[in-house]
């Protein structure tokens, strides 16, 4: 059974959280509520999330400050953040969101289909990363356990080839997505493409380290997302 990805929804207004849950329920993932920046940071201490939907305007710790805390933590700094805001202060306000580490910035009221599509991209990437890490960990155990001969060697080589092929398919999808995003030439496109490229580069480097003769058989896989 494939484990569901967790999506963190952060907003101080219960009706907004309810609306987000209604929109994202079709993705069939685990939706986690947080009604403040402090509550979001607590949730991030124990759980791994595929993506964070973060409201900008919140009393106390606002979205920008919350994002800054998230990006300072090694455990959570690579989790993609989509900022949600009910107001539009112009380019400077939007730039502040990207400077705080957002991969996208959506103004309310937003198109439910667009929001769902954007979130699904990061959920899909997160799930593929998890599968690759699990299979790479299994392969690493085989290699470190001295299974270097006969059928075991063939099994390890086959698994490595399968992992490489799967990652190549993800890289191809990401390249196509990056080309589409580049055409829009906005800050969200640049941030999203850069995030995808960073994650896939880390995965490819870790996988290459497992190749026979690379000298990196025990290299750890990168963190989630």
From TrEMBL:
PROSITE patterns referenced in this protein's UniProt entry, alphabetically: RESPONSE_REGULATORY
Modified residues (4-aspartylphosphate): 55
Ranges of residues in domain Response regulatory: 6-123
Pfam families: Response_reg (PF00072)
Origin superkingdom: Bacteria
Coiled coil recorded as keyword: yes
InterPro entries attached to this UniProt entry: Bact_response_regulator (IPR050595), CheY-like_superfamily (IPR011006), Sig_transdc_resp-reg_receiver (IPR001789)
Coiled coil segments of this chain: 153-187
Keywords, sorted A to Z: Coiled coil, Phosphoprotein
Stated name of the protein: Two-component system response regulator
Source organism: Streptomyces milbemycinicus
